[in-house]
Fold each of these.
Amino acid sequence: MSLDLATTRRIAKLARIGLEDAELENVRQKLDGILGWVDQLSEVDVEGVPPMVGTETEALRQREDVVTDGNCRDAILSCAPEKSGPFYTVPKVVE
Amino acid sequence: MMLTGLTLTEARAGLAARKFSARELAQAHLDAIGRLNTQLNAYITVLPEQDVLAAADAADARYAKGEAGLMDGLPVGVKDLFCTKGVKTTAASKILANFVPPYESSVTARLLDAGAVFLGKTNLDEFAMGSANITSAFGSVLNPWKRKGDDAALVPGGSSGGSAAAVAAGLALAATGTDTGGSIRQPAAFCGIVGLKPTYGRCSRWGTIAFASSLDQAGPMTRSVADAGLMLEAMAGFDEKDSTSSNRPVPEFSKAVGKSVKGLRVGIPAEYRAPGMPEEIARLWEQGIAWLREAGCEVVDVSLPHTKYGLATYYIIAPAECSSNLARYDGIRFGERQDAPTLDGIYERTRAEGFGQEVRNRILMGTYVLSAGYYDAYYLKAQKVRTLIKRDFVQAFEQVDVLLTPTAPSAAFAQGENMDDPVQMYLNDIFTVPASMAGVPALSVPVGLDSRGLPLGLQIIGRHFDEETVLSVGGALEAAAGFAHKPTLHAEAGV
């Protein structure tokens, strides 16, 4: 199955990576090459094999549903590219 | 003996006996960094001298009081993927070029608690994605080794290439690395040092910038196998902030080195005899087998039939997890932002300009294999093949205690080689990826030089949570090989 330009554009949109048309073809070729290579997995028989999720070395733990962190607003906001008082700022999204 | 040439174990003994101070040790390393880092580009950020020396003075005070910790006063480099409180942490990406975390990763916090003195943040492939350290937004790292009679700039391997180059060249006694598909072991082999990827879950992932969460694992990069044990002991341990962290007790890993390996069963997986393996690597592997046999190990042929599918499986699962993990870089809450009139425009421009080409391609690949219509064919299929790869290891470890393989299919290559075809570059990880997929521990030990004078490593893979046997066998291999070669560029040369 070969990857077309329209699908590449859709994937870029889903990933929110703005690619110029000139870059799209280059990306399409690179991805198509990798996809062609990983197609070798189609020869593996996985009938009845369960998918491996994580590395399954530890069972997931539960903990008490209590607050363990917080009260660090200023520390968190210290990393914001743009902020106003105790808020992050972004362009207006509702017209 | 130059202070920059010591092992952790030697330096710790010297500090405890007050033969030199932690301040002298730190100063020697700062001087070496001052002389060599412009050339090697091993560090992205070097910590301010007064901060390094203040940490060293505190260590000296603890030695004076007899309260020294496991890593007390030992100057180490930290891969710039570990968040360090108040110290810029970039993941070698433009998108985090000015990110100063307000918190400390669990692994670096443990090292600080053990008394380690941080020298700086070491360079890497952007977001740890790469095998040659050529995708860093802060420039490539130079391998301190040169081919005989050839000045070509060689790659240090990747992604923990800055850490490997720094340890090899005497710009740190040891360094932290992270390994997702070989990012500790392959650069360790390329730079002639020891690198240990612990069992998945042994070291907390909290505060380490995520690439592929089911594979990422922190580990030590050192000059000796005993050092790897010592440093792992300081890095490992349960952390409730990481849901995949193991709460098993942390053994005294360094004590495993020097233990007799007599009677241990060493498996030689047939599938690792890759077609086209350079003769020198095949020969060194045979030599390794002979050394372990002489040390009293029993050598057993084993089969890991799904080995050949490891890489293709990895290059579906790792990009899938990467696309999900890197969704957080949207230019809103932290990181660099590119302006645009709409919110979607901010995301798209921020991510197009903030990520380098390799990272963008992996995000796109991951987005594709997770997207509706392709999920079952690629991602689910890869997860099932991963089960088979893990079963191969579990079954092999019913017959043997460890596996012995080469670490990488070649010695360090030159910058510019293997660059055009991503698949060619991915083949670097052919021997390291399967252990990552299975989550088992694996160690690379330098054992010899090729005909051009470049280091080669052998890999020892062990059972889940059995780093001790891996270290024992690694110690035996190290003792037999007696690797004492130094790279062309190192702190003790030409001083």
Note: The two ends of chain A are 42 Å apart (CA to CA).
Amino acid sequence: MKLLMALSGALFVFYVLVHMYGNLKIFGGVEAFDEYALHLRTILMPILPFGGFLWIFRALLVVALAAHAYSAFYLWSRARGARTTRYVAKQAAQATIRSRMMRWGGVALLLFLVWHLLQFTILKINVGPDAAGDSAGKLVISSFQVWWVVLIYVLALAALGMHLWHGVWSASQTLGWTNSAKSRRTAKATATVIALVTAVGFALPPLAILFGIVKGN
Amino acid sequence: MNLTLKIWRQAGPKAKGEMVTYPVTDISEDMSFLEMLDVLNEQLNARGEEPIAFDSDCREGICGMCGLMISGKAHGPEVTTTCQLHMRSFSDGDEITIEPWRADAFPVIKDLVVDRSSFDRIIQAGGFISANTGSAPEAHSVPVPKPKADRSFMAAACIGCGACVAACPNASGMLFMGAKITHLGELPQGQPERDARVVSMVSQHDHEGFGGCTNVGACSAACPKEIPLDVINQLNKDLRGALMRGE
Amino acid sequence: MTDTQTASTVAPEAPAPTREAAPGVVHGLYTEGEPIVDTKAPKGPIEARWNKRKFDAALVNPANRRKLTVIIVGTGLAGGAAAATLGEAGYNVKSFCYQDSPRRAHSIAAQGGINAAKNYKEDGDSTFRLFYDTVKGGDYRSRESNVYRLAEVSANIIDQCVAQGVPFAREYGGLLDNRSFGGVQVSRTFYARGQTGQQLLIGAYQALERQVAAGTVEMFSRHEMLEVVVVDGKARGIIARDLVTGEIETHLADAVVLASGGYGNVFFLSTNAMGSNVTATWRAHRKGAHFANPCYTQIHPTCIPVAGEHQSKLTLMSESLRNDGRIWVPKNAADCEKDPREIPEEDRDYYLERIYPSFGNLVPRDIASRQAKNVCDEGRGVGPKVGDFRRGVYLDFTDALKRMSAEAVAEKYGNLLDMYQRITGENPYEVPMRIYPAVHYTMGGLWVDYDLQSSIPGLFVAGEANFSDHGANRLGASALMQGLADGYFVLPNTIRDYLAKGPFPKLEESNEAVVEARASVDARVQKLLSINGDRSVDSFHKELGNIMWEYCGMERSEEGLLKAIDLIRGLRDEFWRNVKVLGSADTLNQSLEKAGRVADFLELGELMCIDALHRRESCGGHFRAESQTEDGEALRHDDEYAYVAAWEWGGQDGTPVLHKEDLVYEFVEMKQRSYK
Ligand SMILES: Cc1cc2nc3c(=O)[nH]c(=O)nc-3n(C[C@H](O)[C@H](O)[C@H](O)COP(=O)(O)OP(=O)(O)OC[C@H]3O[C@@H](n4cnc5c(N)ncnc54)[C@H](O)[C@@H]3O)c2cc1C
Ligand code: HEM
Ligand code: HEM
Ligand code: SF4
Ligand code: F3S
Ligand code: FES
């Protein structure tokens, strides 16, 4: 169960990193971003039809998400079952806060994903002032000129950062990579780096757009 | 010093329990936490109230019999066992809540006493090296590299107190189990049964109703013997290996 | 003669006992019975005896073993090892302990180490030398055949434990490390930092749990044995109370083994666990098993001194600390209140190094303990005053810290020093530690023959519960050795000789003797709950402890012992009139458990004093004020007292009967010990 969670989590991490790299292209302008969106669809093009890789990858992600969420809720319910009588004195220890954060953070991420997909892939809801047409780049820029959209993203990214911070370390522990003091330190450091990089990396485009550093034309 | 104690009272395994408040006075700093409870019990006895049941035996921090949740912390504020906690860790006027370990795998027997036999059953599932009496080879025939011997010893220091389970938000017994896996797995003698051991102990652990580990780390922080988290990692590693080898 | 615990709480007006001298009654206290002539030890060369006994002992066909049930009370090194071994052999074993898990038996608390004649250091060790040292260390009050056997199997113990995964300390080359231990000049002690007992016990516990899983051993934890069932003169079972449900249960078997540990808690304050008791062995004693040398208790020199009124137990620090720490007190009583760091070198008295130059701080326990008492009696003790005297001496690591660096000291003794700091709140890396002797081990116990069989056929006794192979004093690191020797190697080989005669006729629970045993337990429980007086069990226990420590501790005199006997009788009488035990019999009731134990201690205490009184010699840790040399050293009387004193229960109102078993030395010459 834990193994499933770690593996699906790891896949997410990989995806998120790629995705972030892509998003950062918005700094290169709308074309660069659209090119990237196209590129996503044309990887392995001769072998697979247009969007084929993306679809495989999407399927994988959906399976992973299902597995991840399933194991999360399974563990959660087992934990509840393992202590049906709660303590009276609530422990203020950091540790509990962090584990709660994993769960609620995960749920927040799920909600965010729903919104995010609705917004950018499925419905392409445009809440922004400018027309976007077919350009993903324009859609993004237009959307992030609305402050509350940015707020949702920033909050979600904070959740993501926290989730990854513990998650990456936790995955390496679950996979059994950390049984010496040194490897443990490395795992902690890696987790911190990945968490920071993704949170900050993702946060840059929306903020940049909001504050007008990147403008659509 | 004077203190206010809020203590869990429960008449029996099936009875409903509640917190009861007891003031205590004139507690000396040099007393141990359990001696402080002894004083309270003498007073209760004198008043005709039944004394509070709690477990302890060696009172030296080694048998693992004692264990209380003290103001939300397993074994209280210091890194030690409840019996080795001294009143100098508290201040005059403090309010202290005292609860039993809470985990469905550790049902309450009475007041602060819980049943930890689930730990014994985990050991029965494979926490041993099969070496019948009299069949042992000469002790020096198998040298053990010192780093491995030391790591094995570090893990073997677990006293089976259950504080890890009590502190874990998931009520998971992974630290206890990881300690045993590491103790036996680091030694050449422990190799033949290594795969079977981890698989069967983990399955017993889950069967007993302990929660799953989500790497929170509260267990290790509460452990009086400072068993490090990497024993859980070792367990996961051994488990993965064993499953891959088809155990 | 006053000591750590003051007698102030002792009731002054205890009723005077009636002491009408019946014919043949000595001191009005006991009678002498037939001597014991045969201990069943084989004759011949000492090296050959154990092999001979093993060969002569009848065998039990493997197919028959399942049909034989053995009850083992106790899961310490002795009981745990025996249950595992008999389970492996295929017997049907029922194992009992009062803790919630067999892993918590008090053996777990042993810190220092376990001896074995492996001679890994090539420093001249041998089976014979271990045998010799143990006999000498026991002050020539142990049996040669038994001690030799102990030394002989010691090497097998280490092999067995290593195979089970006991993580003994190792050297860089990966081989086992050894250290030297109090009173011995060779390095033969195996250890696992300060947790040797724990690691050995976990080894035995795991072997035991393996048999539980295999179905050969049935485990009854949180069960307290309260009576032995004796049918037709043979031990056939026990009556135990399930401590959780309160149910009184009958368990029947073909043989019963008691491995229930020591009774040091008769002193209230001791290094024993809170639940350590004499109940199992005392109940057997009352059913006919002789109790041997009850007054032989070991006082351990390096314990943390008493801090206050409410202290519930004393904590031992391994005497391995004496290997590198130096013991001293101020030369002048006036310096005793000073900060020890400010007392200059020339004003310190390293008294052990001064009096015993060749052994120095490593003299045996009895000597180290008595000298500590002596310097404190002179008014040169340190630490808080307890009663009229300061009860403590310094154990100083300053020199070691200079010689070895703080890290090296921490590596060797870290956990002990941390424990000291946790308990006292003082940092031993900066301020010298304070130590004082405390009761630690009981060499006395149920009398057993060479087969570990008591005077009740079918009742075997192992580990600290029997009267031990140690004589009047025990060398460090030898109790673990005896526990495991008895449990793994001796008992499984000797009990088969008895079991080969079985299976014995099937017993019904309705058998008269069984019903009677059970009824007596029920009645006693009801009696304790019904007295409803005004004094708590603990207050009786503390008072008994004070009497015992004061008059039957390190130094004893005729006058003191007689007084103690009077006081104990008065106290016992009051106990049965005025104890207050609340709660009911059908739940977990810790006061009730304690009450039963204290009731038995109150009977044992008297027998201990009688034994101490009759032994008018200073021997082992027991200094008789009437028997000393001119310079105040202990004086033994081999011509009169070279025997085991085995006491037979004389009935509730009768007097105990003394049976003497002469100790004959063929291989070691008896000498007055000298460590000067
Ligand atoms: C603090 C300390 C340190 C020591 N250090 C050393 C050392 O370094 N080296 C050394 O050689 N020796 C040492 N000793 C001595 C040694 O540890 C003991 O003598 C030895 O372990 C006793 O083992 P045992 O198996 O006889 O009994 P124990 O381990 O005491 O076991 C007694 C068992 O009997 C059970 N029991 C008792 N009464 C009942 C009853 N009525 N009903 C049911 N069950 C019962 C208990 O539950 C327990 O399982 C030390 C002792 C102490 C106290
Ligand atoms: C559906 C929404 C999600 C939920 C409910 C959720 C919940 C959880 C939970 C409860 C854990 C276990 C915590 C632990 O093991 O300590 C976890 C672990 C993890 N999550 Fe999520 N999460 C979600 C989405 C995500 C996303 C979107 C990512 C990555 C972008 C992610 C990455 C990880 C990683 C890497 C781990 C560590 C795996 C491990 O512990 O072995 N999760 N998640
Ligand atoms: C600033 C932050 C982000 C921006 C600008 C952004 C932008 C986009 C865009 C434009 C798309 C559509 C791509 C396409 O259809 O070609 C997309 C898809 C997606 N994003 Fe994001 N995203 C952000 C953050 C995140 C985060 C934090 C996650 C996950 C935790 C995430 C997960 C996804 C997923 C799963 C898809 C669907 C991919 C697919 O259709 O295959 N995104 N994002
Ligand atoms: S791992 Fe630590 S907390 Fe858990 S049982 Fe062992 S000693 Fe106690
Ligand atoms: S606190 Fe619990 S979640 Fe795992 S790391 Fe420790 S067992
Ligand atoms: S009572 Fe033994 S560890 Fe606390």
Note: The first strand of chain B starts at residue 3 and ends at 9.
